[in-house]
Known about the structure:
The structure is a single chain. By secondary structure, the protein is mainly α. It contains 2 helices and no strands. Helix 1 packs across helix 2.
Amino acid sequence: xxxxxxxxxxxxxxxxxxxxxxxxxxxxxxxxxxxxxxxx
Length: 40
């Protein structure tokens, strides 16, 4: 929720907000999967 508020306040083009948040969420998910220990 904070991320979307911050993105809306600094975005030059409002249409970029959804795409940027989607990419950020995807990258966050991939990093969480990579960082989690798979052997436990």
